[in-house]
């Protein structure tokens, strides 16, 4: 059963990567403005003063303008740092200074904090390949966020940032996969 689910995930991820890769610069710019406004609204709605958020890679929904807003408005941010053992460390950063992480993704330059640093945040904003209508998240296949979210005793709200067409009827699911509380797209904030 597991190899079938794994193959379904691999095929769906390939399709989603291609969709993201072929978005025009105009589509990306318009989406970035809308993502930013919706992420700000989500932060204010949750009265979040401390947020965990990823640094977006070039083909991901752009979190950079939102992070600039957070920095300018006194919202503290925590960024994930990948480790070889499959866990995430965390670091404070300015949202601008970065290095290339283990898998070529951007990671912050800053004091390295351990995996439990995320326990103090008010809101978690995660990347995703797709989310289904029940809130089940499908990531990009390494399981970092699933391990982190699955290990938290008291987890704050978790929202995935995706394009509108990445909200689908059902994602292939494995036992370790973790749901999210909602999504942020260019057109809406949706809570499950």
Automatic annotation (TrEMBL):
GO terms for biological process: folic acid-containing compound biosynthetic process; tetrahydrofolate interconversion. It catalyses: (6S)-5-formyl-5,6,7,8-tetrahydrofolate + ATP = (6R)-5,10-methenyltetrahydrofolate + ADP + phosphate. It holds the Pfam family 5-FTHF_cyc-lig. Its EC number is 6.3.3.2. ATP binds at residues 9-13. It is an enzyme of class 6 (ligase). One of its GO terms (molecular function) is 5-formyltetrahydrofolate cyclo-ligase activity. Keywords: ATP-binding, Ligase, Magnesium, Metal-binding, Nucleotide-binding. InterPro entries: FTHF_cligase, FTHF_cligase-like_sf, NagB/RpiA_transferase-like. Its cofactor is Mg(2+). Substrate binds at residues 55, 60. Belongs to the 5-formyltetrahydrofolate cyclo-ligase family. This is 5-formyltetrahydrofolate cyclo-ligase.
